[in-house]
UniProtKB/TrEMBL annotation:
<dbReference type="InterPro" id="IPR036770">
    <property type="entry name" value="Ankyrin_rpt-contain_sf"/>
</dbReference>
<dbReference type="InterPro" id="IPR002153">
    <property type="entry name" value="TRPC_channel"/>
</dbReference>
<dbReference type="InterPro" id="IPR002110">
    <property type="entry name" value="Ankyrin_rpt"/>
</dbReference>
<dbReference type="GO" id="GO:0016020">
    <property type="term" value="C:membrane"/>
</dbReference>
<keyword id="KW-0406">Ion transport</keyword>
<keyword id="KW-0813">Transport</keyword>
<dbReference type="Pfam" id="PF12796">
    <property type="entry name" value="Ank_2"/>
</dbReference>
<keyword id="KW-0407">Ion channel</keyword>
<protein>
    <submittedName>
        <fullName>Short transient receptor potential channel 4-like</fullName>
    </submittedName>
</protein>
<dbReference type="GO" id="GO:0005262">
    <property type="term" value="F:calcium channel activity"/>
</dbReference>
Length: 123
């Protein structure tokens, strides 16, 4: 006969735990967003530009992959300055990408992002 654990004991044990939850599902992305992120990961400049031209307003260019990386962070991780420039020209959200570029010592991206944020603050 299997012993059962009273609900009170289960609730006490669960009170000390942080509940795990999925932050992001890949299925939340549209097909265009999936192709966009995969193309950025591959460094395929022509395809990324075409997707941005074709789906720009309809697509969330700040979408994230299952690792919660935006296209800009992926381009920085891969040290792809051309893609960083392209994404910035489409007004992608910079967020903490500058910090990532500094951490990776990706000087070209640091300069580009500093100029980008400087341009946005000058009115």
């Amino acid at each position: 006969m299997a012993a059962t654990i009273p609900d009170e004991v289960l609730q006490e044990e669960d009170a000390d735990r942080i509940p795990l939850r999925v932050v992001h599902h890949e299925s939340d992305l549209s097909e265009a967003e999936k192709r966009f992120l995969v193309s950025v990961e591959r460094g395929d400049y022509a395809t990324v530009r075409k997707i941005l031209e074709d789906y720009g307003p309809e697509m969330d260019i700040n979408c994230t992959d299952p690792l919660s990386r935006t296209a800009l962070l992926i381009a920085i991780e891969n040290e792809n300055l051309e893609l960083v420039g392209l994404l910035v020209s489409y007004n992608v959200r910079v967020g903490d990408a500058l910090l990532h570029a500094i951490k990776r010592e990706f000087v070209g991206a640091v300069e580009l992002l500093l100029n980008c944020t400087e341009d946005k603050t000058q009115y």
